[in-house]
């Protein structure tokens, strides 16, 4: 099928175009009874909820441009192909972590999958002040399983190299990350915007030469450290939660990159959720307990990642790195544990750096997040954002020396009490 | 053409099979007058010198197995494809650094190229005690140009990702490096062999847990740090020299990897050449001045790499990393220089580590080098090799702290005076 066959779906056209899919009608009922609602609130794609007499489905279709910006910024449909392949791998590497995949149409750049209900986007829950049991633990586990099992620690070398080559084709979405995350925030790029009142904080940040150097070292790590298949965009808008279930969605930015990337991005989004809480508090201080909970979730992401990574290292290290042949089989199990500790140290340092740049770009770049955006009081929003910027800078500068999660929480708690405008 | 059309050339069959190539007959004369000699002394391939009435050519053909081992170790013909593509890129990135390419036949896995005369393999010259003006300088320059220009510092991101994907197909040759360089030397692998008398030194090395950890960190860097297109096997047997010319050959191990890899491997081979000299001396001490020269060449590889990398950083940094937009254009040229210094520091540390493992594997693994192998006196050979092993270990352990080339030379000079058996 050629690219010219592609046509964006509408609620009106959807039943006629997908009604012939047996797999879909068996699960949700015949097309005559379908109700279709377009619900996409992300930056890039169309998302439809499709309800039938027997059940519901999600239909996600890529648009040939960036939805947030419009047709002036074309973006290839092929991202849907990478999303589908990433979802497949995540489902295999951490069963139950992503929506069940029902159908993929490459030419139409559409994926049909399980409709998660009564799930909501995690970010919305965090703005509303909701708590979810085991949240950080589950997401840390997801990171460990997908990142360990997509790397040379686990895969056959030939399969890892084939996947590296496959996902190296996800050029345009990597380009977005490369520019929007790692470069734009650090100079007055055309697509940037920031809350009025942040001018002094922004000037300090953009005048910090060591920070600008570090951000580019991190960019080089992102473009060159092809350690594992990343989700690539693992923020709290890419997680769906209910009281009993946690799922990860939207891996269209998937690419091979550093193990610390997804973890750092996730921690950044919990830290931002925390620092944004004064803007959502019912009364001054009403969210301080909730802020502490968000800090504990941030820490749990790491501690859970570390624990599961350790378990996998000990039980599933079947790749070409740190082989048992060299260690355990030579009665040098201690060397294996030394190597694991040092490797986790390197991942931690990377994660702190990526955490810092993710915070910066969500406040200074193109793609902001609702945690801050939904604070109507502009002065209050700027005050919250300035604290987050300062924390991001601190994490980048201290990434080689910060000792662990408690030190990280101490920094965040401290910055939360200060004026960084 | 299918793989079954492949047939290994022989001196007898070569004129009939290549005599129809116009490009070749124009350059070296008609096939009727050709004289063919098989001269391959490497580990993997057939190499023919083809002499005609007008000139000469080299015909290099891959065999479907490892020549050093035999048909029991199959190796895909496709390595010839990667060698050809690597040679093309090296020729473009550092004109005049490789033999001129005349013809490539993918199905026959053969490359026809310029015959270099009166060049000899550099390693043979070093064993004979010959000096070549500007040797380290030229090779350092080659590393800087090919490694800088094959990276995200220089290339368009999409082209770099396409090349990363292309060379990710060079699976089997990477597998050789992954096993033979980074793992086998550190345990009693089946293919290993070493000089009698080294037993105590080998036991110390294989009992050094921190070393075994570091070697695997370096292996992970090799498999994951996809920074640039490497030569992949840049030892002194991959360099041809005359009094006036220096060329690099045999890049069939080409893959994306860490910038420091080629540099470290090259330095390792000069250091081994140096430490092997007592085995080639006409009388005791007769080669000590030559040893000093080899140390100066080792240092020159790095200083020349550093100087040329610096020039390219300042003049050709057109890739997506450390962009002028962020630095020079913001009057933050200082940040660009800080970044360059830190990046060179990281390359230096990597290079020292790779230097160490390359020394170890040439003495303990499958593929030894003539520098040591041609020392007939087994006890003397073992004494030289033990010093090299100790130096390799020292470089790996001190790679994060060793201050520069002088410190490196001091270690090598010191080890050369000691007994490390």
Automatic annotation (TrEMBL), chains A, B:
It holds the Pfam family APH. It is an enzyme of class 2 (transferase). InterPro entries: Aminoglycoside_PTrfase, Kinase-like_dom_sf, Methylthioribose_kinase. Residues 36-270 form the Aminoglycoside phosphotransferase domain. One of its GO terms (molecular function) is S-methyl-5-thioribose kinase activity. The keyword Nucleotide-binding applies. It comes from the Bacteria. Its EC number is 2.7.1.100. Keywords: ATP-binding, Kinase, Nucleotide-binding, Transferase. Homodimer. Belongs to the methylthioribose kinase family. This is S-methyl-5-thioribose kinase. It comes from Pseudogemmobacter faecipullorum.
């Amino acid at each position: 099928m050629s690219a010219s066959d592609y046509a964006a779906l509408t609620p009106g056209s959807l039943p006629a175009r997908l009604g012939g899919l047996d797999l879909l009608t068996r699960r949700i009922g015949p097309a005559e009874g379908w109700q279709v609602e377009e619900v996409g609130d992300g930056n890039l794609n169309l998302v439809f909820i499709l309800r039938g007499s027997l059940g519901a489905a999600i239909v996600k279709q890529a648009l040939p441009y960036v939805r947030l910006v419009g047709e002036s910024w074309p973006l290839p449909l092929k991202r849907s192909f990478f999303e589908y392949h990433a979802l497949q791998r995540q489902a295999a590497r951490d069963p139950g972590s992503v929506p069940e995949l029902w159908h993929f149409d490459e030419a139409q750049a559409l994926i049909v999958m399980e409709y998660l209900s009564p799930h909501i986007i995690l970010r919305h829950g965090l703005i509303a002040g909701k708590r979810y049991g085991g949240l950080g633990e589950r997401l840390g586990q997801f990171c460990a399983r997908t990142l360990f099992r997509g790397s040379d620690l686990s895969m056959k070398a030939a399969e890892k190299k084939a996947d590296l080559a496959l996902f190296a084709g996800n050029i345009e979405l990597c380009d977005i990350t490369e520019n929007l995350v790692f470069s734009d925030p650090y100079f007055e790029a055309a697509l940037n915007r920031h809350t009025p009142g942040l001018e002094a904080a922004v000037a300090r940040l953009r005048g910090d030469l060591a920070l600008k150097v570090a951000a580019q070292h991190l960019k080089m790590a992102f473009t060159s450290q092809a350690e594992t298949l990343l989700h690539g965009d693992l923020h709290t808008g890419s997680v769906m939660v209910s009281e009993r279930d946690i799922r990860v969605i939207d891996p269209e930015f998937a690419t091979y990159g550093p193990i610390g990337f997804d973890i750092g991005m996730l921690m950044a989004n919990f830290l931002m959720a925390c620092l944004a809480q004064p803007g959502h508090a019912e009364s001054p201080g009403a969210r301080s307990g909730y802020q502490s909970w968000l800090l504990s979730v941030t820490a749990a992401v790491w501690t859970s990642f570390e624990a599961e990574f350790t378990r996998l290292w000990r039980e599933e290290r079947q790749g070409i790195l740190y082989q048992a042949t060299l260690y355990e089989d030579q009665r040098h199990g201690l060397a294996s544990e030394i190597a694991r500790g040092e490797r986790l140290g390197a991942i931690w340092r990377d994660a702190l750096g990526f955490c810092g740049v993710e915070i910066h770009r969500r406040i200074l770049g193109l793609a902001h997040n609702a945690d801050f955006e939904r604070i109507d009081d502009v002065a209050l929003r700027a005050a919250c954002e300035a604290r987050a910027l300062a924390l991001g800078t601190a994490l980048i500068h201290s990434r080689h020396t910060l000792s662990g999660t408690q030190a990280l929480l101490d920094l965040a708690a401290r910055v939360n009490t200060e004026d960084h405008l």
